[in-house]
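Hey L., structure's done. Input below.
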Amino acid sequence: MPDQPSQFLQIGSTRLELPASHNLPEIMRQHPRYDFGYWNLIREILAENDLLGAASVDIGANIGDSIAHFRRFSQGLAWGIEPVSDYFGFLKVNTAGFDNVWLSQALVAPAALSKKVRLSSGGGTGGTSLDAGDPYEGKTISPEEILAGLDDDFIVKSDTDGFDGQIIQGMADAMIATGKT
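Output:
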């Protein structure tokens, strides 16, 4: 595990390890249905459409809590994409017991914006923006590259604290261009 104190959180049958400074356990103590509500809704929508085996792309995967939720009901491909090194280390540990998982330490951005995006992190979350500051210099993945790695049935969750609109628009544009929905 990364060289820092840890805390633990239970999601379904999965015990997640998080940095001691991460806010998710406190958020879940204050709001016990946090995360569970929308993942239960996602499960129902996928089940109603016979898509429980669809892939899940988790942009801004953080420590893997969304992948743990996805694994409560699906064994479909789970692709976690996280640029922050500390969170990526926990993501690797927390998903090691799952089958059918891809992990990428990268930032997702449309190609035209990939050299302009700034990354920040703290308090258990990472944020991306087009604000002034030094642009992210690590690996990036474009929406087109994500789609190239997927079959037709998939869901995308984006939680980048500030850049989700650009990512979702980039994904939508790429889906239209490729015919993948």
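Strands lie at 6-11, 14-19, 55-59, 78-81, 101-104, 107-108, 118-122, 125-129, 140-141, 154-158. The helical segments are 24-30, 36-48, 65-71, 85-95, 143-148, 164-178.

-- N.
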